[in-house]
Amino acid sequence: MAQLSLPSAVGTYVTAVNGHDLDGIVGSFIPTGVIVDVGRHIEGHGAIRRWAETEVVGGRLDVLEEHPTAHGADLLVRFTPPGSASGFRAWYRFAVTEDGITQAGLTYA
């Protein structure tokens, strides 16, 4: 993957997903962080851990486009779920602070 100019926490998230690093995925979020995954609200480290453990770890996240925003970054990605031979395109919209990701909105592209 080419070097991206992502906010630190977003780069940590992408690296952790591709490294199958559950603690890294969870740790990229602030403790009260929220994921909105196609309408499902996943809030806090415990819920993010359960979500990532069953739906993310073992998958592959390829960044296709990167768009910095005032409060984070929007990424067009191809996510290939664990155990799948093919992936899907999605927009991942991250809001971040210096402490980590505060919210990630995941929608199909």
Write a brief structural summary.
This is SnoaL-like domain-containing protein. The chain has 109 residues and is α+β, with helices and mostly antiparallel strands.
Per the CATH scheme, the topology name is Nuclear Transport Factor 2, Chain: A
CATH architecture: Roll
Number of spatially distinct domains: 1
What proportion strand? over 45%
Regions with little confidence, pLDDT below 50 for 5+ residues:
none
Radius of gyration: 12 Å
Helical content band: 25-40%
Query: Quick one: overall form?
Result: globular
What CATH first level would be assigned? Alpha Beta
Number of alpha- plus pi-helical segments? 3
Q: The biggest beta sheet, please?
A: 6 strands, mixed
Compute the number of strand runs: 6
How would you characterize the overall build of this protein?
This is SnoaL-like domain-containing protein. It comes from Herbiconiux moechotypicola. The structure is a single chain. The protein has 109 residues and is of the alpha+beta class. The protein has one domain: Nuclear Transport Factor 2, Chain: A (Roll), CATH 3.10.450.50. The chain is built from 3 helices and 6 strands, in the order H-H-E-E-H-E-E-E-E. It has a 6-stranded mixed beta sheet. The longest helix is centred in the middle third of the chain and has 12 residues, at 44-55.
